[in-house]
Amino acid sequence: MRFRLQAFGLHLTGSATALTLVLGALWLGWYRWPGWYLASALHVVGIVVMVDLVLGPTLTLIVANPLKRRAELVRDISIIVTVQLIALGYGTVTLWGGRPLYYTFSVDRLELVQASDLKADDIRVARRENPALAPWWYSRPRWIWAPLPADPQEAEKIAAGSIFGGADVIQMPRYFRPWEQGLPELRKRLAKIEGMKYFSPAEKRALESRIRQLGLPVDQANTMVMWGGTRRVLAVFDLETLAIRALLRAD
């Protein structure tokens, strides 16, 4: 039993180290709050953790029989490690492809833009026409303003296309502008939480309670919804500086 436990401990330590390095780098670089929540990253992380930290070491505990021939033991553990590496590779590729690149303000809401939301053609155009705000492989999440283009026909085309499943302006980084330039328009779009149509009455009460606990007002037009796929959080702003004071979950 001692041999099995030693093999289990070594395997668990190695798996935990590899997982910590990979997930830690992704979290520090791209998935800090609210990125991991809006991107639903925990679904993928859960699968990887289950395989690498639970299934892998447990199988090693089972197969690590000291009476086995060394070649047979090495083969069994190699198969387990291979499955773990496949799971870790799957998780890494999935999280990398879905990493948050932008938190955008556009029209009347905040939205998360992930790497998988952007088409290669739009990225190439942005790097040529708007390189300062274009995405690169090393780009970290940035807060930006994504206004519709000044050309009315182009703006109407984008707005109409997005209704029928086409690309929205938040997926066209050639139109992105610095966050600060959009603050005057953002101020006009702030609303009181009681008028938010994206939250149920129970969610509004819970959010109001959390806002009060933070010492922030609940009776002012200082909030805006922030979307990431089907998930949303409430952004609470300081009305003097328009700095974001809190990003609150409704659940």
Question: How would you describe this structure to a colleague?
Answer:
This protein has 251 residues and is an alpha/beta fold. It has three domains: 2-97, no CATH class; 100-182, no CATH class; 190-251, no CATH class. The chain has helices spanning 2-29, 35-38, 41-63, 70-97, 120-129, 152-163, 183-189, 201-213; strands at residues 100-106, 109-114, 142-145, 177-178, 223-228, 231-237, 244-249. Strands 4-3-1-2-5-6-7 form a seven-stranded mixed sheet. A hairpin with a 6-residue loop joins strand 6 and strand 7. Helix 1 (2-29) packs antiparallel against helix 3, helix 1 (2-29) runs parallel beside helix 4 (70-97) and helix 3 (41-63) runs antiparallel to helix 4 (70-97). The longest helix has 28 residues, at 2-29. The radius of gyration is 23 Å and the shape is elongated.
Brief summary:
With 251 residues, the chain is an alpha/beta fold. The chain has helices at 2-29, 35-38, 41-63, 70-97, 120-129, 152-163, 183-189, 201-213, and strands at 100-106, 109-114, 142-145, 177-178, 223-228, 231-237, 244-249.
State the distance separating the first and last CA atoms. Answer: 45 Å
Shape: elongated
The largest β sheet comes out as: 7 strands, mixed
Helix content: 40-55%
What fraction of the residues are assigned to beta strands by DSSP? 15-25%
* SSE arrangement, N to C: HHHHEEHEHEHHEEE
Count of alpha/pi helices: 8
How many extended strands?
7
- In the sheet with the most strands, the strands line up as 4-3-1-2-5-6-7
Structural class: alpha/beta
